[in-house]
Amino acid sequence: AGATSIHFGASKNATLLLDFLQRRGYTVERYFWDMRLEAGHPTEAAILPVGFTVRTFVHDQDEALLTHVRNVTFADHYGSVQRTVEDITSRTKEAGFHADGVFFAFDGGEIAGFCLTSRDEREWERRGEKVGHIGLLGVMPAYRGRSLGRALLLVGVNYLREFVPVVELGVEGKNDSALALYRSVGFHEHKGWANMVKE
Asked: How far apart are CA 62 and CA 172, in angstroms?
């Protein structure tokens, strides 16, 4: 049908499957990681760069803002797809979405970054433990390199710790700067998936 490559996702622990695929011409293109901040691991206070402020999401006001900052900050991420205001509005109505767990950072009146957290009691029942998630974390290109991402991550983690002992997030394995940031706060690789590709 004209496809030029085939992609297959497999757990990094599925060694028999990975070997099976590699013998048939697949190669490991990259890994994706679930990272975890364990219960009891101390987290430092969030310190915003001088002049920056943070506020939370307001329903029926911030849907377009969240769409914009998400699309811009993730534009260069592997596999990222631009979202519409309708997409984001639908997400804000899901059970795990809490307006007080979405944080916008501003430099004066300019949006500089955001952190979206989630927590869902249905997941807690299914997994048998209380876990919160850093769902999205992004800094606008003009504000990168100022420790704003670290500050927003800590804002999100400290918020979630009011409700859950464990915090998780996902990251693409070639995103070295994000991996270094998450490790510096105490996250570790918990589960991994290999993206196997055959041209």
From this structure: 27
Q: What percent of the chain has pLDDT over 90?
A: 94
Distance CA 91, CA 101 (A): 13
> What gap in Å lies between CA 105 and CA 52, rounded to an integer?
7
Q: Which residues contact 84 (CB under 8 A, 6 or more apart)?
A: 67
Q: Using the structure block, give the residue that is written with the tokens 């596999």.
A: 79
Integer-rounded Cα Rg, in Å, for the chain is: 18
**Predicted confidence (pLDDT) at residue 78 exceeds the cutoff of 90:** no
DSSP assignment, residue 69?
A: H
pLDDT digits (tens, 9 = 90+) for 36-49: 999 999 999 999 99
Residue with tokens 């890994």: 31
Do the beta carbons of residue 58 and residue 100 sit within 8 Å? no
